[in-house]
Amino acid sequence: MARLLLGLLLLASLSTVLASIVDSCASDLSAMIDGAGGVDDSKLNASSIYSESYSPAHSRLTATSSWLRVYSDSEPWLQVEFEASMPIIAIDTKGYSSYYVTEYKISHSMDGLTWIWYENDASPRVFSGSLNDSSVLIRNYFDPPIEASFLRLHPVAWNEHPGVKWELYTCDTYTTESETTSANDMHTTDPETTSANDMHTTEPENISANDMHTTKPETTSANDMHTTEPDTTSTCRIA
Ligand SMILES: *[C@@H]1O[C@H](CO)[C@@H](O)[C@H](O)[C@H]1NC(C)=O
Ligand SMILES: *[C@@H]1O[C@H](CO)[C@@H](O)[C@H](O)[C@H]1NC(C)=O
Ligand SMILES: *[C@@H]1O[C@H](CO)[C@@H](O)[C@H](O)[C@H]1NC(C)=O
């Protein structure tokens, strides 16, 4: 009983710490795909490409079109690779024309081989994208942040076609345990914060890349879209 109470108290204090990471970072976000800190087109890839006009390079928010898969691709994903493992704090998505993703999942990897779902209550978390309109930018936060070199967006439900444009954000003031911090660094992460992140990390031994791909998306067509409950659990949305 005492153990349980202690556990509950610990959980309560951890969620306070986690909330503060995202809160303190929300005003300090740097784009990871486009712009000065962004990646080359060669770092963007996908499960399939409808045509060169809809290649992953067109998934940048600044592009005129978007990424589109081929119709026969039943498990589509859009991928970005970074030079090094980075804390990923937030994601923006939008669509193109009448094509937009209403729900998506996120997986991530350190090596591009072993992929881990971003989970919520031990199952892949379903994020809400645009519900109405391809031109509205929808933001979601990763709380806890993702630490990875590769990230994939897996469309789950969409309008007409899963057209995706996106941006990911890191936080300049977020530091991890592994980084060396100087005495002058005001933004050192304390041990509680680090253990909070560890706590939510899925054990890589348990979930292999093969396991992941056997999980079918719950909904894959626009028709199914309206029967799916939007994820309201902990999404922080700025429309
Ligand atoms: C991009 O992904 C495809 C699978 O869709 C794969 O065959 C190809 O090797 C990847 N390209 C790079 C540069 O990683
Ligand atoms: C959908 O569009 C309608 C009309 O523009 C708007 O009132 C509503 O807030 C939108 N809903 C969502 C979830 O974006
Ligand atoms: C993790 O591995 C254990 C032992 O093999 C197994 O019982 C459990 O179901 C696995 N969990 C997941 C999420 O795969």
UniProtKB/TrEMBL annotation:
Q: Where is this region: Disordered?
A: 179-239
InterPro entries according to UniProt: FA58C, Galactose-bd-like_sf, Neuropilin_MCO_CoagFactor
Give the compositionally biased regions (Polar residues): 183-239
Alphabetically list the UniProt keywords: Cell adhesion, Disulfide bond, Membrane, Secreted, Signal
Q: Where in the cell is it found?
A: Endomembrane system; Secreted
User: For this UniProt entry, which residues form the secretion signal?
Assistant: 1-19
Which PROSITE patterns does this one have?
FA58C_1 (PS01285), FA58C_3 (PS50022)
Its BP terms in the Gene Ontology are: cell adhesion
Superkingdom per UniProt:
Eukaryota
Pfam families attached to this UniProt entry: F5_F8_type_C
SMART domains, per the entry:
FA58C
Query: By its UniProt entry, which CDD domains does this protein fall under?
Result: FA58C (cd00057)
The UniProt entry lists membrane topology as: Peripheral membrane protein
| Any one GO molecular-function label of the UniProt entry | signaling receptor activity
User: What does the entry list under GO cellular component?
Assistant: endomembrane system; extracellular region; plasma membrane
Cite the F5/8 type C domain residue spans from the record. Answer: 25-171
Protein name (record) = F5/8 type C domain-containing protein
